[in-house]
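Ticket #4471: structure output looks truncated?

Reporter: J.K.
Steps to reproduce: submitted the chain below (81 residues) through the standard prediction queue, then opened the result file.
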Amino acid sequence: MGRRRDSNLAATRKPWAKHTAATRNWPSPSGRLARAELDAYVAGHHLKELRKAIGKTQAEVAQILGVSQSWVSQIENGRGG
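Returned output as attached by the reporter:
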């Protein structure tokens, strides 16, 4: 015979429950900010690589997007948002 389980206990057991309290606020606000900054940097890098691949200047891309050249520069360097 195998072990006998209490059916009520098995129905209410949540193996992930011990992790939810510890990770409820994860990532922390500072962690989310760091992630957003990293995402901005990566997106800017991709924009720069794509711009160079098609042979456009920042000024040309800015004109297409309807923004200033300095804004395109800021985005490419991860400081725009």
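Triage note (M.O.): checked the attachment and the full token line is present. The CA atoms of residues 26 and 51 lie 35 Å apart.
Status: closed, working as intended.
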